[in-house]
Structures are given as C-alpha cells and as structure tokens.
Specification:
By secondary structure, the chain is mainly alpha-helical. The protein is built from 7 helices and no strands. The protein has one domain: LemA-like domain (de novo design (two linked rop proteins), Up-down Bundle).
C-alpha cells in the first residue's frame, strides 16, 4: 500500500515537472512572438512616416529624384520583407536605413528645406521611431536568447524536442554597421 502511494506521488511530481517545463517553453515562445510584434509595430510606424517625408522634401529636391526613388523602393522592399522572417526583414530595414541616411545627407544641401518645420518634425519623429525600433530589437534578441537557451539546455530540451519547439533567429545588424567608426581628430 505504501509503495503504491509513493509511486503515485513520484508520478505526480514527474508530471508536474514536465508540465512546468512545457509551460515555460510556451511562455518563452510567446514572449518571442510578442517581442517580434513590437518590432513590427514600430516598423509600420516608420514605413508610414516615410511617404510623408518624401512628399515634404520632393518640392525642394527636384534634382534629387534618384534619392527619393531609392527611399521609396527601399520602403516597399522593407514592407515586403516582413513576410519572410527576421533575417530578411533586418536586411531590408538596413537598406532602408541607408537610403534614409542618404536622403538626410542630401537634404543638408538645401537650407530652406532644413528650416521647414514639417521636415524637421518628420525627422524628429523618424529619429524617435528609430530609437523605439532599436529598443524593440534589443528586447526581441533578449527574448530569442532566453528561448533558444531554454530549448537547448537539459532537461527542457527533451520536452522541446518532443513538442517541436525550434530555435528562432536573432534580428542582427549587418557587418557594415558593426564596424567601429574611425575618428581622425587631426
């Protein structure tokens, strides 16, 4: 009789531990999905601001149609890349960031454009959005790290394997953005 009670207690404990591991994996996976959604919210905001910026500057920059076209094309590619996962999204967003930088660099040549309040406000909103995207990417990558660690470490990797939990990709900056800038103070 005591052996049966001990066996039942052991089985209940094992089931509770396994259920706890499974629930923890589900929680981490959902956190990764939620953090990706936060990136998408900020990227959508960015994508929505860009046509307004292009519209605001195009009258001043009539000779810079190639730059404006590049920004518009990069925006379209970034929107399309969202369906292909974090790696494709990161690559397309980095191209878009580059075209926006070139747009702002060209805008420096137009003093009346730099003084335009609409353009200034749009630049400030884009800068704010870029900061929010950076924070959302950091949170996403932290969530992915925690999740990937959980599904790869023993004993939760046994549960992860049985229920097909798979690793997720980090949202990484390209090699060109990882390089440390050279500062020459001569």
């Amino acid at each position: 009789m005591i052996a049966i009670i001990v066996l039942i207690v052991v089985v209940v404990v094992i089931v509770a531990v396994l259920a706890g591991m499974y629930n923890s994996l589900v929680k981490r996976r959902n956190q990764v999905d939620n953090s990706w959604s936060q990136i998408e919210v900020q990227l959508k905001r960015r994508h929505d601001l860009i046509p307004n910026l292009v519209e605001a500057v195009k009258d001043y920059m009539s000779y810079e149609q190639e730059t404006l076209t590049n920004v518009t094309n990069a925006r379209a590619a970034a929107i399309d890349a969202g369906r292909r996962g974090p790696e494709a999204q990161a690559e397309a967003e980095n191209v878009l960031t580059g075209t926006l930088k070139s747009l702002f660099a060209v805008a420096e040549n137009y003093p009346e454009l730099k003084a335009n309040q609409n353009v200034i406000q749009l630049q400030e909103e884009l800068t704010s959005t870029e900061n929010k995207i950076a924070f959302a990417r950091q949170f996403y990558n932290d969530s992915v790290l925690t999740y990937n660690n959980k599904i790869q470490m023993f004993p939760s990797n046994l549960i992860a394997g049985m229920f097909n939990f798979t690793t997720r990709q980090f949202f990484e900056a390209p090699e060109s953005e990882r390089a440390v800038p050279v500062v020459d103070l001569r």
